[in-house]
Amino acid sequence: MTRNNGFSLIEIAIVLFIISLLIGHLLTPISTQIDLRRYKQTQKTLEEIKEALLGFASIHGRLPYPASNQKTGRQDSTLYTKEGYLPWADLGVGRVDAWGNPFRYRAEDDQKIFWNGSELRVKDNLTTNSGDSRVAAIILSTGKNGVPEEENGNQNKIFMYDVDIDDILTWLSRNTLVNRLYATGQLPPE
Question: What does the domain layout of the chain look like in residue ranges?
Fold first, then answer.
């Protein structure tokens, strides 16, 4: 009688199945860690953009206009009070988020920011009323999927800040901007 020292096909299939399950469970946390790292990196870039906006306003006495071309990143005065791309070249900041999507940007009319109160609003999923959020500018990353979600894609003056969507939204508060301009003597005349 001959003795078989090898593995049967069933035994090999079971081992391969177990190994594939283990590798699959290891890869899921890695992709989650990568997404988390990209989210944090995008938030850091958004904070740098806010500081660059304040610096620009301190020098010029106004916020920059949005850019119509994401590749050049230069202000376009025809987009005054409209949404466009971040004028990254004029601000000296990065033009894309951690997923490679261009940042979106919208600034309020100077007269509304400084004297009449802003019409730009930020709301979350817990409140049905956006209220007076006193927003001077919005900076938006469309997140991992690259598409503005909910009200962020409507081109209106209300933007959604919600944990259930992957857009990452930040804003420059009217009060912060006015205080910075007042401190630098750049507050525009009434």
Answer: 10-184
